[in-house]
Amino acid sequence: MPLKEQNYWLTTADFPHTESSPLPARVDVAIIGAGFTGLSAARTLAQRGAKVAVLEAETIGWGASSRNGGMVLTGLKLGADQLISMYGHELARRMYTASIETIDCVEQIIREETIDCGFSRCGHLEVACKQKHFDDYARQAEVIAREFNHHLRVVQKQELHAEIGSNIYFGGMVDEASAGLNPARYVAGLGRAAMKAGAEIFEHARVEGLQRESSQGKAGWKVTTSRGTLWAREVFVATSGYTGKATPALQKKLIPIGSFIITTQPLPEALARELSPRNRMIYDSKNYLYYYRLTPDRRMLFGGRAAFFPENDQTIRRSAEILRRGMIDVYPQLRDSKVEYVWGGTLDFAFDIMPHAGQIDGMHYAVGYAGHGVAMATYQGQKMAELISGDKQENPFVGIPFPGAPLGLYNGKPWFLPFAGVWYKFLDWVS
Ligand SMILES: Cc1cc2nc3c(=O)[nH]c(=O)nc-3n(C[C@H](O)[C@H](O)[C@H](O)COP(=O)(O)OP(=O)(O)OC[C@H]3O[C@@H](n4cnc5c(N)ncnc54)[C@H](O)[C@@H]3O)c2cc1C
User: Does the Cβ of 207 fall within 6 Å of ligand 1?
Assistant: First the structure.
């Protein structure tokens, strides 16, 4: 099969039909974005009796939620030491504990809604690209066990063949709590679950303007979309890496970064088992990292930041070759396997590389997943929905400082990405 510039996951999923009727005049909550964050919030809000409209510029799951690696990961992008030094022991502990709960949250929704998305608690494996990265694993595992009571297993180089069929790494670290799933099937299932609970989803309804406006004596928002206008008491912004000019204050706090994925043709069973004997979700220890896994039909799915810029025809095409070379460096056994699909998507990074949730300009939001969004976005959608419907609940990511660009040198257009790309490659070389 010739290479297709297409998201492989989409070939495996059916998406629900959404509202074709005009937008309602009034809702309790307008949610912008129909990915994991928006749909998880819509489900919870609707279950609690709120009238909810999800406004999606494209189609359900069109953003990162259908395009990702399907790795349902514990932990945050920042290491344990950094978390503790930024937030102190107590808050760092609550954040780390929440990151473990995010996996339970995904598992529970999948079970309650019987979403057929191949969810499996297969664990993740981080592999060390340098000896000093591996030396750091033992220390990190010790800090995480002591501070957060969570146990990771350090794997010495000589035992690594039981985890991965590659000889290039210096050792690894396993977290059995992480999981894997098919993200397109999962986001389609979340969409169905939100609709079943009573939320209405409007596709091709790009939010173009948000204006404060009272209606029937209640404060709220006039929401202007490409499909018409509605009034909402509350607005929840769930646009992640695709946050745009409708919410400029949030856009300025987020850096959109491209990530790209290839998948091979389906592999023979014995070869697939040799590459990943325990079927883990795998990623390496670099800043400019690779992440990879087998798909349920035994393709090698191999991703990375082959270009730092968000996806377009050029970056996607270039990524196919860059990622194929990266994959063969890791797995020379795949030299003759055909790459059948390549696609890209956009991640959202905050300047402190942390998830953030709360209110900005009077609107609710949850963003900043930095490549850990499958579990965290689902969880934040649910938690923010509980908060919006009046619950006092524990969400350690609400209200933490949300830094903007240093010296305010950013208006939402990431002019510095080429420099950031070079900088991260330099860091990988020296650290
Ligand atoms: C290639 C890739 C691989 C990844 N791999 C992993 C992984 O393996 N594990 C992991 O945990 N995370 C991974 N991630 C990150 C994860 O996919 C995201 O963090 C997560 O999907 C974010 O979900 P979301 O609902 O917040 O945003 P999205 O799914 O990006 O949805 C945002 C939606 O908002 C819509 N939108 C934007 N502006 C407007 C507007 N004005 N009006 C209406 N709608 C609007 C967009 O059309 C989009 O559909 C990956 C991301 C990418 C791109």
Answer: yes
Choosing from 239, 293, 315, 346 the residue with most ligand 1 atoms within 8 A of its CB, the one to mutate for a pocket test is 239
Residue 348 Cα to ligand 1 midpoint, Å, equals: 8
Question: What are the tokens at 356?
Answer: 């953030």
Plot region of 229 (φ>0 → left; ψ -120 to 50 → alpha; else → beta):
beta
Residues 293, 387: Cα–Cα separation, whole Å? 35
Range 397-419 burial, b when 16+ CB lie within 10 A, else e: bbebebeeeeeeebebebeebee
Q: Which atom of ligand 1 is nearest to the CA of 206?
A: 42
Atom of ligand 1 nearest to the CA of 343: 1
* Ligand 1 touching residue 303 (CB < 6 A): yes
Q: Which among 64, 71, 7, 8 is positioned nearest to 283, based on CA atoms? A: 71
- Which residues 6+ apart lie within 8 Å of 118 measured at CB? 180, 181, 182, 185, 296
Helices 36-47 and 183-197: angle between axes, nearest 10 degrees:
30
Interval 314-331: pLDDT, tens: 778 888 999 999 999 999
* Identity of the residue numbered 376: M
CA distances from 368 to 74, 80, 216, 378 (A): 16, 18, 35, 13
Pocket of ligand 1 contains residue 202 by CB under 6 Å: no
Among 134, 186, 197, 127, smallest CA distance to 162 is for 127
Q: Has residue 105 got a pLDDT over 70?
A: yes
Ligand 1 centre and the CA of 43: distance in Å?
Answer: 17
Nearest to 305 by CA among 339, 370, 257, 369: 257
Q: Is the CB of 69 under 6 A from ligand 1?
A: yes
pLDDT of residue 22: 95
Q: Kindly state the percentage of the chain with pLDDT values over 70.
A: 93
Check whether 311 has a pLDDT greater than 70. Answer: no
